[in-house]
Amino acid sequence: MTQYSFLQLAAEALAPHRRVPALKQSELKSRYDVVIVGGGGHGLATAYYLAREHGITDIAVIERGWLGGGNTGRNTTIVRADYLLSGNVPFFGHALGMWGGLSRELNFNVMFSPRGYLDLAHSEGQFDHFTRRANVLSLNGIGARMVDVEELRRLEPALSIGSAAPVPVLGGLVQDGAGTARHDAVAWGYARGAARLGVDIVQGCEVLGFDIEGNSLRGVKTSAGSIRTDTAVVSVAGNSSRVAEMAGLELPIESYAVQAFVSEPLKPILHRVTNMNLGFAYASQTDKGEIVMGGNLEPLASYAQRGSPLRISELSAKLAHILPFLSRSRLMRVWGGIADITTDGSALVGPSPVSGLHLNAGWGYSGFKATPAAGWCMAHSVATGKVHPLIEPFGYERFASGAFLDEGGSGPYPWLH
Fold it and tell me: How many Å apart are CA 247 and CA 217, to the nearest integer?
């Protein structure tokens, strides 16, 4: 081992150092086999799996802003698979199964923490519904169990669920393998993995339109010039409708702002992500001790990445009923994302009516947790020309055929206000 004197160490510390960029900015070429619009988790994951699983590396990921600067960096990092309908259960079960090995696969710590997820039941009908949901999940090999009030007191002592509690709690559904992951780490892990495999990643590049001949894609027009390509994937979360409109597509999607906020750091007190289903509000505690809180959509459709003080007040009041310690905590910061909501509340994924143009949209509250499986399935579909079975139920054509995937319990939507 080399020995250094104090003066040598001091000289090294004070010497000017050139900052090494976290990711090399690629130069945009005039043609690619595949162009992916959107440098969030889903777009980067699609590029990564196209390169790793299918050997397709002539790919450009173009991002209007910076990597992970959209909904990937504006969510509450929750990972769960507590769905009910047959179209959602296999997909989200597969997604949850991918999270545990993601850090090793990417050689980048995404900080997945399987701390558990708790859905509180506030009525007998809700308890019965969660019991059915837990049974469906268990039959599909996805861990889930029901707990009564006594077990809840043991699992989460901070919950106010006694006989004099202001909000009734009869029990809850627990997913022990669910939890949280670090959102920006997920984006950068996939970005670095894709770049290592030869994918070009271009930030600060805005899509201005699509070159379509007949009904086939021939290129993508960007602020950095036109790109010739026969295959593109639109993966832009809350802006899906606006980008699809450039290709002449009207999506059955509305966009709503979703607000979240975080408290000052506190001592460890909340062990699981906990969801209060009476009015919908949820909370989880980070490794630093902050309590991350979120809940319902803003009431009016909007592309604005911000919420309102009214929503903060409403959610804080709800959560203080079951977590009284929050009433004495101070908020540190607030942020907002955009949820793109389809008319049946489930994702819209797969080929579009324009040949060569693929859509990855409509995830609403489910986008972050779906990241690895969405990228993996999209890569399969693009590379093979055959829609992966896990995303077949999410196809564009279901809105014409009436084969809706109406997962009302997957998150709060405008018609559930």
Answer: 9
CATH class of 113-177+255-342: alpha beta
Is 96 in contact with 190 (CB distance < 8 Å)? no
Q: What is the largest CA-CA distance in the chain?
A: 75
Which string of b and e fits 21-39 if b means at least 16 CB within 10 Å? Answer: eeeeebebeeebebbbbbb
In Å, how far are 83, 305, 359 from 135, measured between CA atoms? 11, 37, 32
Q: How far apart are CA 208 and CA 206, in angstroms?
A: 6
- pLDDT tens, residue by residue, 185-225: 999 999 999 999 999 999 999 999 999 999 999 999 999 99
Cα separation, 240 vs 234, in Å, equals 7
Q: How far apart are CA 133 and CA 146, in angstroms?
A: 10
Within the chain, which residue ranges are assigned CATH 3.30.9.10? 113-177+255-342
For residues 236-262, average pLDDT: 94
Residue 325 near residue 291 (C-beta atoms within 8 A)? no
- According to CATH, what is the number of the domain 29-77+184-252+344-416? 3.50.50.60
Helices (H), 281-336: 309-322
Q: CATH 3.50.50.60: which residues of the chain?
A: 29-77+184-252+344-416
pTM attached to this predicted model: 0.92
Question: What does the alpha-carbon distance between residue 322 and residue 333 come to, in Å, rounded to a whole number?
Answer: 22
- Strands in 215-373 per DSSP E: 216-222, 225-228, 232-234, 253-263, 273-276, 281-285, 291-301, 331-342, 348-351, 357-361
